[in-house]
Write a structure and sequence with these properties.
six-stranded parallel sheet; 10 helices; 382 residues; alpha/beta
Amino acid sequence: MKIVVTEAMPTQCAEASTTEANIPQVVLITGAKSQLAEALLRVAADIGELALNSIANTSTNISANTGAPLKLYALSRSQLDITDAANIAAVFAQYRPSWVINCAAYNAVDAAEHDAIEAHRVNALGPELLAQQCLLSGARLLHVSSDYVFGGQAVCDARESGVEQHQNLDSASNSNPNPNPNQVHLPRPFVELDAPEPLSAYGTSKLLGEQRVVAVLGDCATIVRTSWLYGQDGHNFVKTMLNLMRTQPSLQVIADQIGCPTWSDALAKVIWQLVMQQRSGVFHYSAQGQCSWYEFASEIQRQALALNLLSQPVDIQPITSADYAKQALNRGVNLAKRPSYSVLNSGKLRSTLVTHNALLMPEHVEWQDWRQQLNRMLRRLS
């Protein structure tokens, strides 16, 4: 498939025609220095179907294919401050985007507890201002959100539960068909229809961002919630663990918070499919499976040793969230409360995407187990 530019800008969010006339011409990415923005640029280059026009602070280039290219611009905060309505309007007038992918975010979960105003400004006001400008210009907005909008444990009948079953459920599984109070219940991954209940200022700000985008754009909004994001760029758990494993004799890692690590490149691939297929709605995306932070750290070490990214193992000890928070408080650090279980069900997204027209990476990496995604990322570092 060749990507062809047409003169028309999309003015309505009809679901997913895959004709060339509906393919976006200009995609604007906010938060150019974030790990997800870097991944979006890298995946676009790897696919080879997108012609990337590089500007300042955009680190990736690919050659234009024959035919009219799709133009992709990634803007840093100095170029596009999403909390400044006038700046947004000027940027839209200059680039005339047909799609905007919002990667700009305040992601310092603990810092947001005492800086809630700034977290709200970036995570709630910023997306709202982007949505308003998209509404005025006819552009589409894909906004990236977080598993931390949830706070409790969604539960299901034990008979419905399975090791991998949760990744194949769809939104219809949101209700419990057997609410017998004597029935054993187990946590189940969150689906899009589950009621959010954030526990932290960060989670609250991300939920407000979602709500404001939907309030402005309605059914035309595209929101993707993801979890435990990591990649070869920026600051993330994998890179932090590797650095600590090289410098510390032992580590303590939380063992009672369960989620799903997600590779930024796999998320980027999913996002490009949603954009190219003109999809709207709220979607969940994470890798397959689930684990604790302790299990995640242990797997990072195991794979890093096998790939010679580490020369020797270190002792990794599990610790509870409560004990970890007490230790932090003794150091003068007040940690934000995090959900004990925040696994996301990706079934709706998987069933929505039209794979035969999707932008493909080898072996459909986006639907792989989290260990497989981790291995792909670590191999790039080796």
